[in-house]
Amino acid sequence: MSVHNPPIRWQQLHPGAIAFFLFVQGILTFVWEHPFMLIGQLLFLLGWARRERVLPAIMPLFRMLLVMAPFFLLVNALFSTNGVTFLWKGPVVPLIGRLDFTLEELAYSCMGLIRLAILLTLSGMFQQFVDHDRFLLLFAKVAPRFVLTAALAIRMFPFLLAEFSRIKETAYLRGIRPRGKGKRAQIRFYLFLLRPLLYQALEGSWQSAETLYARGFGSGPRSSYKTKTIASHEALGMIVTGIVFAFALFGKWLDFGRIDYYPRFAFHDLLGDALFALLMVASWLVPLYVLGRRETT
Fold first, then answer.
1. What residues does 93 pair with on adjacent strands?
2. What are the tens digits of pLDDT across the range 250-261?
């Protein structure tokens, strides 16, 4: 079983700084509708993930996207009634109308898939680059009970997955294997392994409750919180991120990245939009360099 080492260099940053950078990327996903802008942003994020060696941890999200993609394309293209460039005309269905397939609907569906891929990539990067405990501690003074519950919930699924893998390996070492090679035998075997997993989860929850009680949780508000201050280069990185974001909005105001999906799919300035997309990718390298130029302790 392969184990991915966490990117310690980014997890040592102030969680607010790296979360702000990812949050701005998420906002821009909904600002742009031009495929050049979205593809450039996706390639930038994937290149960053590959450089930090976390791309294998994000790839399962893309496999899930590949499963969803055909249904997303077919549902939107068949049941939408927009577009004039027909690729296929089907029968008329009562209460729905004519089932058709237009170039405009296909282009809009592909844009939606690229946007979903960016959001999944940002979600995976948040999991890899942000220390969840330190991020939740930012809200400890405002909502301490929510922070504690969220921290326990975040740990629950990785803990259960690790425990299930350990129980499965122990069963194999003791000679306990599925009776047969079919799917039904596999399901029965996994249901059998759920019993020790449930017992382990209940025991772990009892130990966690005893530990929290011994440390005084629930006896009253805490008198002090250990917070991490933002370093100078992290504050500068957040400022540069805001500047690049403002530059992107200014480009949007200047009609860069303008595209028409309906009623007819058309680009307005193909070369200019391609150059602006390259400029945006290069601009995002600046705050990324400022944020990660040196390690923090």
1. 97
2. 998 988 888 877
